[in-house]
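This part of the workshop introduces the protein records we will be handling. Getting from the letters to the tokens is the skill we practise here. An example says more than a description, so a record of this kind follows:
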Amino acid sequence: MAYRRADERLVSNFTRYRELRWLDRFYGAPPLLAAAAMFFFGFALQHLKPELHTSGVQMLAWGFFISTVFVHHAVYSTNSIGHLLGSRRFDSPDQSRNNVFIALLTFGDGWHHNHHFYPRSARHGFYWWEVDLTLYILTALSYAGVVWDLHAPPQRIFAETYE
């Protein structure tokens, strides 16, 4: 199946960002650049630090292909395992679940039931013990002014738990 361009009527608020329009048009460029960077990094290491016993092909394989497969499987598992195994804190019509193992693999996306219950929140781990590395990264980026307007779950959410 060929890639289809986004229907700009559905994402009109995003079309004002040139970089997003560029990514929509040249969606293959970032992964190709990342693959090339991994290869050339390994090639440079092979010649600058031969005692590391690495090469461009090795860095391309591990730094791009294998890591990409791992990341994709971890993210996809959120929508499969995250609807089969785990706990449910809120009364919601779907079958989403919080799964600590998936949360650790996906930097917090495994708090899938929390996300389904209040999807507007940038914070998927609603409680301090629910490790949410994505939130920590977004918070750091907000201090740097790169992202802003991060939403947290409202207090009323915490009164609705039944776990």
